[in-house]
Amino acid sequence: MKVAVIGTGYVGLTTGVCLAFVGHEATCLDVDQSKVEALKAGRIPIFEPFLEDLMADAGTRLRFTSSYEEAIPEAEVVFIAVGTPSQPDGQPDLKYLRSASESLGRHISSEFTVVVNKSTVPIGSGNWVGALIRESQKAAGKAAPFAVASNPEFLREGSAISDSLYPDRIVIGADSNRALELLYTLYRPVIDQTFPAPAFCPRQDGFAAVPLVSTDLASAELIKYAANAFLATKISFINEIGLLAGKVGADIQHIARGIGLDSRIGNRFLSAGLGWGGSCFGKDTAALSATAKEYGLGMGIVEAVRQVNFSMRERVIDRLLDTLKIIKGRNIAVLGLAFKPNTDDLRDAPAIDIIKRLRERGVIVTAHDPIAMDRFRVEYPDLGGILADSAEQAIQESDAVVLATEWSEYRELDWNNLGEKVRHRNLLDTRWALDGESLRRAGWNLIRLP
Ligand code: UDX
């Protein structure tokens, strides 16, 4: 099929590349010309394992452009995957969605087009996009038939390719059967797993057909929010239990395993520690709660989940105060900036929050990340000076080390040797990433969250 994808961020680019890989003709469109030029030259603006390999495999079925005229008229399916950044009141900013919809109205012209919202948008946005397209069609004197669908994305950064090729499920929602049928055809190769698995991202033994959830527009939109809020809840839940475990002297790792083995609960997303960051959980829980408010509903659970999560960041400061008593003027090293390993994404990264809080309290912070430092320099130019070239350099003469992101590189450090470089061997492992036994043997005072 002929597909267009508007927006070449994490979601858009992965979607375009994967659809081209499984056999469709995909054109990725971005209004940022320099981004398009880079992509045409095979350079990708984000760090995502295997994306480049898959892009190479997709070959000429994958194209890039900044022209609606080039990408849209022929496309049977158009994905909108533009950014929807959070506004201060928790509602996402829909200006890019608006301008994409308006441009679509001027350019869709095939026999029937499905316009798919891939961005996480407030419930009801599908209808809104439809209305914007119709208005813009009217203004341009056009009337090509189309339907709006929702196809929420569940991919995780760092494993986006495998999540897209081998998903747990595919959700499509529309109030038009024709749109649902086209989307089913589009996803057929993934649903039936008929594409040859790439060598760098093999199919797990026994992985077969992917369940398809085909529903109405509003339900598909809400599925995305409900899924993310539930995952965020699991993390905040285990952190809340962790706080109590700390008081009564119980082991949160054992508790997580003990409850996670109940298949009704499941063992994933029960890692206690610094909590979640990233572009989705914070934004989606805020949006869910804001939407509920519009309908006069309070979302007590979701609100509590947020509150517990963000309190973990302050908890880092509390634990450092407990240990060092005075932190003003001390040297503290923060290892890891990205919100999780295998990405350079710094959106709502807990490490950044911690660095700011520490600096506000007069701490001399040094920081390191294996991948995200370039992005950090661009996004936080006034903090560029705190970066060190290596983890080893970052911890020189430090009074405490905070491990904020569990990069495997940090697990593999020779902590025994590193103990010689610091002023005091205080190590706050906020992610339970390191082996406690051997660290303690090496003389480290190991502190963990919560
Ligand atoms: C998430 C969802 O998983 C994905 O389905 C959705 O579409 C987008 O949001 P992502 O933000 O890429 O994906 O990362 P994810 O791997 O889910 O981790 C989110 C955050 O939770 C990270 O900061 C991670 O460190 C934290 N986390 C995760 C925990 O603190 N504990 C856990 O047990 C799991």
Quick overview of this protein structure:
The protein is of the alpha/beta class and 450 residues long. It has helices at 10-21, 33-40, 51-58, 68-71, 95-107, 125-139, 160-165, 177-191, 217-248, 252-260, 281-294, 300-324, 350-360, 373-379, 391-395, 408-411, 415-418, 436-441; strands spanning 2-6, 25-29, 62-65, 77-80, 113-117, 146-150, 170-174, 212-215, 331-335, 364-368, 400-403, 426-429, 445-448.
Describe the structure.
The protein is α/β, with parallel strands linked by helices. It has three domains: about 1-215, NAD(P)-binding Rossmann-like Domain (Rossmann fold); about 225-305, N-(1-d-carboxylethyl)-l-norvaline Dehydrogenase, domain 2; about 310-450, NAD(P)-binding Rossmann-like Domain (Rossmann fold), CATH 3.40.50.720. The chain contains 18 helices and 13 strands. It has helices at about 10-20, 35-40, 50-60, 70, 95-105, 125-140, 160-165, 175-190, 215-250, 250-260, 280-295, 300-325, 350-360, 375-380, 390-395, 410, 415-420, 435-440; strands spanning about 1-5, 25-30, 60-65, 75-80, 115, 145-150, 170-175, 210-215, 330-335, 365-370, 400-405, 425-430, 445-450. Strands 3-2-1-4-5-6-7-8 form an eight-stranded mixed beta sheet, sandwiched between helices. A five-stranded parallel beta sheet has the order 10-9-11-12-13. The protein is elongated and about 70 Å long. The model has no long low-confidence stretch (mean pLDDT about 95). The structure holds uridine-5'-diphosphate-xylopyranose.
